[in-house]
Write a structure and sequence with these properties.
There is one protein chain. It contains eleven helices and four strands, in the order ααβαβββαααααααα. The protein is mainly alpha-helical and about 300 residues long. The chain has one domain. The protein has a four-stranded mixed β-sheet, with helices on both faces. It is elongated, with a radius of gyration of 22 Å.
Amino acid sequence: MAYVGLDKQIRRNNRNSILLLLGFPFLIFAGMFAFLLYVNMGNSEATLDNFMMVMPFVIGGVVVWFLIAFTFHSKLITLATGSTTLERKENMRVYNLSENLCISVGMTMPKLRVIDSPALNAFASGINEKTFTVTLTKGIIETLDDSELEGVIAHELMHIRNKDVRLLIVSIIFVGILGFLVNMLFRSLIYGGGRRRSKDSKIDGRVMIVALLIAAAVYLLSILFKLALSRKREYMADAGAADMTRNPGALASALRKISGNSDLEARSDEVKQMYIENGPKENEAGLFSAIGGLFSTHPPIKKRIDFLEGME
């Protein structure tokens, strides 16, 4: 990814964010329309009538799910990672680095939390100034020197400034809705398979299979769309951190230490998407590397280091 101007790339990514947010409900409605078209045997007029009748209920269900997840996301992240508040008196080094960076760019200081783990990792989360949080592991605090840790904190602050954390929460919620739908349809198909065979049950079975296939296709597309944009935003956060600290080499050095030492367990795979490092394994090659890269949330760490060193 060539560095062609941070402000320009931030604006470009914000435009992509709008497309992403519009894309998720579009996928839901497109999948619903395709299913109704099959049920109505290709009759577009009947399909459109059914679509308009069902759409308010779908929108209502999505909105309720979205509001619940949006409200409790911070508590869910805390439960998934086991993080605790980073006390100022015991961690003045981290607080000083964070406050100085925030002052330098005129942003409100986020909350700081820590995970009791020797792994080297960090992430940002939240949807507004009351919930914005930077979480660090004990391992990364104790292992990195001041300039390297400053680069990592700056990277996470850039995720907050660029509204990446809010976008990621929204995308996780939408993907979660589709994932729940796929799981529900799959369980219904398995459970329904035990019923007595009849002409009607066979028809119901075919309808359920088609619904499952459409939902699975929409779910896969939503994941690929989200992950592709997530990878782009890691480069943006790296570039922004380098610009904030005026020291791209420090973050590159931090990423070298993090590489191979970032394995941090969480109760939710969705939370791992927020980590500073969660990319494909460097020892994978060929087809497996390509497939792994397609489904990874982060670009390979070597490419990120090369990108940062190219800014020096």
